[in-house]
Amino acid sequence: xxxxxxxxxxxxxxxxxxxxxxxxxxxxxxxxxxxxxxxxxxxxxxxxxxxxxxxxxxxxxxxxxxxxxxxxxxxxxxxxxxxxxxxxxxxxxxxxxxxxxx
Length: 102
Fold this sequence. Notes:
Number of helices: 2
Shape: globular
Strand content: 25-35%
Distance between the termini: 55 Å
Radius of gyration: 16 Å
Structural class: alpha/beta
Helix content: 10-25%
């Protein structure tokens, strides 16, 4: 008898992953890393693992993000104001560090 492949089917505790990357397709892409980072949340979801992506707040990312909620405000991050935004623009959760002074 084979065992179920997903964590949720096995009754395992929920597991979350935070991917930290410089690019994620379709928000921003300069190379192959963006393809992997963008595809991984859906692949992990089939295994019962929730994946989120943390990206820098490049102007193109902020424009592509759509409606976003501010989840954290940092009055002094390396010499300037910053905030962390959360959104779900393409079916997976994305956090963006918006720190224009960096």
